Amino acid sequence: MILTVLCVSAYAAETSSPSLELSRPARTWEFLPVVGTRAALLGNESGQMEAWVYPLKIFRDFHVTFHVEGRALPAETLVRTLIVHPESASLVYTGDTFSVRETFFVPVHEPGAVILFDVETEAPLEIEASFTPSFQLEWPAGLGGTWVDWDANVHSFVFGEESKKFSAFVGSPTVSDDSLAYLTNFSASEQNSLRLGVTSKGREQKILIIAASTDGRDNALAAYERIAKSYRELQSESAKYYSDYLNRTVRLTLPDAQLQQAYDWSRISTIQGLVTNPSMGTGLVAGYKTSGATQRPGFAWFFGRDSFWTSLALNSVGDFATTRTALEFISRYQRDDGKIPHEIAQGASFVNWFKDFPYGYASADATPLYIIAVNDYVTRSGDVEFAKQKWDSLWKAYQFLRSTYDAQEFPKNFGFGHGWVEGGPLLPVKTEFYQTGLGVEALRALAHLASQTGKADLSKELLSAFEKQKAAFNSVFWSPEKQSFAFALDQQNRRVDELSVLTTVPMWFGLTDAQKSESTIHQLAGEDHQADWGMRIISNRSPLFNGGGYHYGSVWPLFTGWASVGEYRYHQAFQAYANLRANALLALDGSLGHVAEVLSGDYYQPLSTNSPHQIWSAAMVLSPILRGMFGIETDARAHTLRLAPHIPAEWGSFAVEAIPLGNELISVTYQRSLGLRTYKFTRTGKEECALEFAPALSLRSEVASIEVNGRPTPFHIDPNATDQHATVRVPLAQGATTIRIHLKNDFDLGYSSELPPLASSSRGLRVLSQSWNTAHAQLTLSLSGLAGTSYDLVVWNPSQITSAEHAAVLRNGGEQGKLKVAFEGAANSYVRQEVVLNFAKSR
Question: Which of 58, 153, 583, 742 has the fewest CB atoms within 10 Å, counting from its CB?
């Protein structure tokens, strides 16, 4: 059920970018990243930082002391407020007689960073900045012996090593005093420090510059002087870079302010995964966190499967250039037998990474994901030349995939590399449902790429193999006893009937039978699988579960995004929207503007090993919104846009702008009133476009008519177990096309979930399933809620309901009302109950 636009047209909206400033009281323990493509400052909201200029770590334990009125005040004791922008982050410190705003800024394309101090004081104040030198290459490489010295001519510490290839500078033009780390037989200090000069009274700005190079001192010094001279212009350029990015990718105007902020920030967070390594090139890294005394900053090196899952979100927002860059980077390291790499450290060029370390090709899932990602890119961008250039690489990847087949022609994990699960009690298995599903989808993807590159006979052969594998896949992994798909097949080819959210990955691609998918999703919607902050990998009732288990109990926003897209595809909008909101709200909590890698399965808090700014987690805000809720699919060569939106019941309007279709852009706006839904599509250009449009409607509602530009148009209804889609296929006229859907018995029901307080357990409502009787005069909701708690659901047009069992209908006389559901039972436990809504029989 989809909306399709065949078009080579343009909609160029003149819009200003949304304000992306976020602010809240500082949480001193929370991760604080500021990153560019060549450098990063990583720390926390106390102001403690470490500096990276890829692939070099410059220092750690950076912190500030304020010298005022004879006292030395540690800045972390005075931090009050955090303010973040895409290109920078600021901490505001306040003492009795002064305020200092410390701004961390990393230019997008420069090998360095800037720390600005805006001082306002009544008494003489001097800032002392201290740090521990940590001049080394990123893991697993090393520089051996390194040194730090003071260069008074440039007012900077100079970092170096014996080969004189690697160098860095940390300094300030206003330095009044410096102190070097030292080691003697009697005492030692690891700290370097410099004082930035006294501000007597009033306002003044101080600055600290960081720069480095892998190509000698002269290049490092040139970068240092360039940044020092032009940091104001660089800050403006970096802000513009992100503003332009928001304006040239798919823009949303949403009635939900939190969802709006989360979408915009997640676009920023995703593009911040783009990193340039001077000896390796540009690709997508997996995420960021501090390295402490080590040289391993979270997952800030290049990963195959992370890049591919992230690329699906980049394609959705129309950032095809970054996707192509990421695909090019990863494919460059394809093994001779066709296997696609799992991870490539930023220090890989300095060591024998692929032979001396076990990580390079550790996963099996990166190979089918590569084929899937290339197909998604080519389909949505129209860049068939890329498919032609990569055909040999794609074919080699397919041959490797075939080499892993078992007797059923399912790709194996055991002996070839892990699937999703890398360790823990869920292993060993022969093949995961996840892995086999990716293998099946890779066949379909390669068949499409073959057809696009003129290989019709091969495409037909691959499609035949796809249909055969798809049927076997749906049969072999299905558990009649559990009425759900299994996690895996073991080495004796027996089903491992552990229910897992990983089963939603094949649902993302529409590979699974509808009825089996619905049954699986209904079980995954239970409070044992779905926490308020996302999806656990397995049920917390499983004997294998551990809430801190990285691969056997924790919550990953990645899983949550998979589930949301899969649930929307199979029309389980309650569950899908809950998972979408969980990921989106995480972007506004924790590391502000970013989404965590992994959280506890027991309590709302990140795992202690969590990478707080994880790129594919941010991507899993974008994909559930665009691919899931809005159901947007595009085919650039066929000039088709398909849209099957499941719009929340409480939304009266929205706009989607700059949907890319080849070289053109399309916009969609929506307005809702009682009995009427209005969609307006805007395009320019001369080529014809065709639109297939299939918005979801309640099974209670009846479509009286559909008009296109004021004229009745044919439509057909595609019903399923939970909703129906009114489908129209019409050409889009040049300019604007307005579609109005007139409804009888207009009705809708929704629920907006929220995150619980930090470190608490789940307390939100779970909608397990919904079912209508044949006459659509009765709706039964299977719900789960916390005993002693009541929940409000949104009701669109509550006058439709004649009575309710185990719930109260609150009517306010308008278009919207509420359905209040209370749960009774033992305190702090989830209980289940059914709510039955009765309606007048339709005429």
Answer: 153
640: helix, strand or coil: strand
pTM over 0.90: yes
DSSP code of residue 503: G
Give yes or no for residue 638 having a pLDDT over 60: yes
Ordered alpha helix ranges (H), 409-511: 433-452, 456-476, 504-508
Pairing, β 79-85 against β 71-74: unpaired
Q: Rounded CA gap, 713 and 689, in Å?
A: 17
Spatial distance between the Cα atoms of 61 and 66, rounded to a whole number of angstroms: 16
Average pLDDT over residues 611-625: 98
pLDDT tens-digit map of 89-144 = 999 999 999 999 999 999 999 999 999 999 999 999 999 999 999 999 999 999 98
CA atoms lying within 13 Å on the CB side of residue 265 = 27
> At residue 651, does pLDDT exceed 80?
yes
SS (H, E, C) 699-721: CCCEEEEEEECCEECCCEEEECC
Report how far Cα 13 is from the mean position of its chain's Cα atoms: 26
- Structure tokens given for 407: 């007797």
Which tokens hold the place of 706?
């559909």
Residue 38 phi/psi, 5-degree rounding, is -125, -10
CB 135 within 8 A of CB 126: no
Helix%, strand%, coil% for the chain, nearest 5: 25, 35, 40
Cβ–Cβ under 8 Å, residues 520 and 485? yes
Please report the pLDDT score of residue 836 as a whole number. 98
Three-state SS at 493: coil
Structure tokens at 229: 């001279």
According to DSSP, residue 629 is labeled I
Only one residue has tokens 């294998």, namely: 544
Please enumerate in sequence order all residues whose Cβ is within 8 A of that of 729, keeping only pairs 6 or more positions apart, or say none: 4, 690, 691, 692, 693
d(CA 329, CA 311) in angstroms, rounded, equals: 13
Q: Which two tokens mark 269?
A: 């967070």
